[in-house]
Write a structure and sequence with these properties.
Blueprint lengths: L1 H27 L15 H4 L10 E10 L7 E12 L4 E12 L4 E15 L5 E15 L10 E2 L3 E2 L11 E14 L3 E8 L23 E8 L1 E2 L10 E12 L2 E12 L2 E10 L3 E12 L2 E10 L4 H4 L1 E11 L18
Antiparallel strand pairs: 1-2, 1-17, 2-3, 3-4, 4-5, 5-8, 6-7, 8-9, 9-10, 10-12, 11-12, 12-13, 13-14, 14-15, 15-16, 16-17
Length: 341
């Protein structure tokens, strides 16, 4: 019985080691995708840098996501962003930072970037924004949490030193993105490209040039329309319906999100369906409230794929502060009316 117990323990350790190495390989060779958010327009700069300055207000937003809560070592993501419009140069400036944790801290990714967007008025009806984004990304693997085969003593467990070659635990690289946005009073459409230069993200082969080691470009195409459902004199009394679609592709992976928002006074409700490359992934519901300059929203992703029994679902919370500066008393071009909380 004693040796059977030790064999069982050894099997469990080896199983954990294999799973962890699978995680390493997926991260190192570049098959992983960027973190995603379900509340796309609560974090507009994360969706498309061309939305910087588009609201013609000063915005500060924070989004926090806890993905696949049924997993012990799930994914947790936080995004914070700031943007403002500068009327004298018809431009928007912004900053965005993100932090992502996978596997109880085995892999963490943090980033910070700045955005410049030129805001143009094409005619009396249409506006156009074009933006460039650049910043720094840092990735860290905590190899102290890994268990290698030669560390396992049959009796005492993983107490021995390993002879495995451990790579550099921290890597940093520059990353760039760009985006464009067309919009009028009720219609908007945009295209964004992230990871423009496809930087090397490998912990082992930092000087190699293989495509499998690079962070793939992420393409985002999104569009929507705002449909007034009543003829209220003031915008805050207006009831509106906003159907939307968002398509993303990163190397061989793609997903499409289709849904709508309904907005009435302080309340916004939304429902989305997400389809990925190989399966129907999730049904998303969202609710938001507005209190003058402060907005808060909550969404839940109900997994509808075969992973539902394990992954369960995802929670996301967003908070936005939006201030109207003094220059908004004058007209400095159109403000985009993306779905807002």
């Amino acid at each position: 019985m004693f040796y059977q117990a030790q064999i069982l323990n050894l099997y469990q350790y080896l199983k954990k080691t294999v799973l962890l190495f699978v995680g390493i390989l997926l991260s190192v060779i570049g098959y992983c995708q960027d973190p995603e958010l379900s509340q796309f327009y609560a974090a507009p700069l994360y969706t498309n840098p061309a939305m910087t300055g588009a609201a013609k207000n000063i915005r500060l937003g924070i989004s926090a996501r806890n993905q696949y809560t049924g997993l012990t070592n799930n994914y947790r993501t936080a995004v914070a962003a700031f943007d403002a419009y500068i009327p004298k140069v018809k431009s928007g400036i912004g900053m965005i930072s993100s932090y992502d944790v996978a596997g109880d801290g085995f892999l963490t990714t943090s980033s910070f970037s700045a955005i410049y967007a030129f805001n143009a008025q094409l005619n009396r009806e249409w506006g156009f924004n074009a933006a460039i984004q650049g910043g720094l990304v840092q990735k860290r693997f905590d190899f102290s949490k890994f268990i290698f085969e030669d560390m396992i003593d049959p009796v005492r467990g993983p107490v021995l030193p390993t002879k495995e070659s451990v790579p550099q635990e921290n890597i940093s690289f520059m990353n760039f993105g760009a985006g464009v946005l067309f919009f009028n009073k009720n219609i908007f459409t945009g295209l964004a490209v992230h990871n423009l230069t496809e930087p090397n993200q490998s912990f082992y082969y930092q000087n190699a040039d293989s495509s499998s080691l690079k962070l793939p470009r992420r393409y985002t195409l999104h569009a929507g329309i705002n449909i007034p459902l009543n003829s209220a004199r003031y915008e805050e009394d207006q009831i509106s319906l906003s159907p939307n679609i968002l398509f993303m592709q990163q190397r061989n992976f793609f997903q499409m999100n289709a849904g709508f928002y309904v907005k009435q006074k302080a309340l916004t409700l939304g429902a989305w369906f997400r389809q990925t490359s190989k399966n129907s992934d999730a049904f998303i519901v969202m609710a938001g409230l507005r209190f003058n300059a402060f907005k808060i929203g909550y969404s839940y992703d109900a997994v509808i794929s075969k992973a539902a029994t394990v992954a369960v679902g995802s929670h996301e919370l967003s908070m936005v502060i939006e201030l109207k500066p003094a220059y908004n008393n004058r007209r400095f071009g159109k403000a985009i009316k993306c779905p807002q909380l």
